[in-house]
Design goal:
With 473 residues, the protein is of the alpha/beta class. It is 47% helix and 16% strand. The relative contact order is 0.12.
Length: 473
């Protein structure tokens, strides 16, 4: 994965990452609120032994007190010291074991100074523990030495500290936020690694080794039975026109006159692509005929709201003339040959010589767009692909399996079909943040601002207004 891929992945999942950050921070805060408060207090003293010259010797380290202090550090956590503290301070309500576990001692390497830190669930208790610890250490040390040769002199008494040292709320919140953020990243990478669907343009290209002719955005108009000029979605209209333009430049010297539109599996939008592409070609002034060759689940007649009782099946069977089955759409350059009656043997009809002759005959006068069944469930599309100038595969972003798309491509290559490109359907509108990373078609806002649309109704763009003002001058 490149740096750009990583940035796109982050943008595509930014809201999930922020959610993980927030949830982790809240969990860290909740953990802190549930933990008991721990307060600390520190007292300092110095050790003197018989024969010390004074405090100067103790601090400078030129005295035997330094050696004694080093040996007495371990006494701070001893049971003897803890039991004495407990007996001298019954109000603490702590056992000897609890007291020993809440005391820590340290010593300055250059002197005989001892620092005792005591912790407790109350700041006053922590203060009492710290101050009592120095006295108890001296008492136990004298007992071990067999006399009053050792004395611990308080230098700085412990003071109550009302700020708890534990839990560290800010640290827990930050740590929780970091863990939540990393956990979401791990899930995103894991999902990407195990996902088998087409999520990006690169996924589709790698699976087929084909170029992308067009990208159709997610649109209720395209998903419905609306025809192209009825759709109020200007982004969808422009995406179809771009597909029309790219199709014309597939082969400049010999542009395709008959194009088969198919997909790897049902439900990927091939009929929508075929219908809208045929309309776009007709709108550009090119005589176009769309043939509904999906004799198993025909949808073209429903899309254009025409009667489908007579159609391709009857023409191939010789029951009616071609002119009787073809319908002109609203006095336009678009003609429709519906599927007709669903036959018991669709593959035989579509693979027949009559079907090939029909496509060849229509190609002399029309641009022929054929809506064919998907490749993997049935063989109809592979049979038809040999009778047309080019075949276009349709894949749905987030719906088509990469393996299925790869297998469909291989099936068409096996029959030497002329695969001219891909159409990617249902592409995200969020720009390069769509899908897992970096796929989106184009932002609606961008198209509307460029073409002068502020809603479903067209308005004058800035460029047009300037042109009108200039003409008045």
């Amino acid at each position: 994965m490149t740096v750009l891929d990583f940035i796109r992945l982050t943008r595509a999942n930014l809201r999930y990452l922020l959610a993980g950050l927030l949830i982790g921070a809240l969990l860290g805060l909740g953990y802190s609120l549930l933990q008991p408060r721990v307060y600390a207090s520190t007292s300092t003293g110095y050790v003197t032994v018989a024969g010390s010259a004074g405090i100067g010797d103790v601090i400078s380290g030129n005295s035997a007190a330094k050696d004694k202090a080093t040996g007495y550090l371990a006494l701070t956590n001893s049971r003897a010291v803890a039991e004495r503290i407990a007996s001298e301070n019954p109000d603490l309500g702590m056992s000897a074991g609890e007291i020993a576990g809440n005391l820590t001692a340290s010593m300055d390497n250059q002197s005989a100074l001892i620092r005792v830190q005591a912790t407790a669930n109350d700041p006053v208790k922590a203060q009492t523990l710290a101050n009592s610890a120095l006295e108890s250490v001296a008492y136990v040390a004298n007992e071990l030495e067999g006399g009053n040769t050792v004395r611990v002199v308080p230098l700085e008494d412990a003071l109550p500290n009302n700020s708890p040292i534990s839990p560290n709320t800010w640290r827990n919140v930050l740590l929780g936020a970091l863990v939540g953020f990393v956990a979401v990243y791990a899930l995103v990478f894991a999902r990407r690694a195990i996902d088998t669907k087409v999520r990006t343009r690169e996924d589709a290209i790698k699976s087929t080794e084909l170029g992308v002719l067009g990208m159709l955005p997610k649109s209720e108009d395209l998903a419905s039975t609306k025809i192209l000029h009825e759709a109020g979605d200007h982004v969808s209209q422009e995406s179809i026109r771009q597909l029309r333009t790219n199709l014309r430049f597939v082969n400049v010297d010999r542009p395709p006159k008959s194009v088969l539109i198919t997909s790897s599996e049902p439900g990927e939008g091939k009929s929508t692509v075929a219908s809208t592409l045929a309309q776009a070609l007709a709108e550009a002034g090119q005589p176009t005929i769309i043939i509904d060759a999906d004799l198993r689940r025909p949808t073209v007649a429903k899309k254009f709201r025409i009667d489908s009782k007579i159609g391709l099946t009857e023409v191939i069977a010789g029951q009616v003339e071609l002119s009787e089955a073809v319908r002109q759409f609203e006095n336009s350059q678009l003609f429709i040959l519906p599927a007709g009656r669903i036959p018991p043997n669709p593959s035989e009809l579509l693979g027949s010589d009559k079907m090939r002759s029909l496509i060849r005959e229509l190609s002399e006068e029309f641009m022929v767009i054929i809506d064919a069944p998907p490749v993997l469930p049935v063989t109809d599309a592979t049979l038809l692909s040999k009778a047309v100038d080019g075949t276009v595969l349709v894949a749905t972003i987030g719906g088509t399996q990469r393996e299925h798309l790869r297998e469909a491509t291989e099936n068409l290559h096996q029959v030497k079909a002329n695969l001219i490109g891909l159409v990617l359907n249902q592409t995200p509108r969020g720009g390069f943040g769509g899908g897992y990373y970096g796929f989106g078609y184009a932002s609606t806002r961008g198209y509307k601002s460029y073409y002068g649309y502020t809603s479903d109704k067209p308005t004058e763009g800035k460029g047009l207004k300037k042109l009108k003002r200039a003409s008045k001058k």
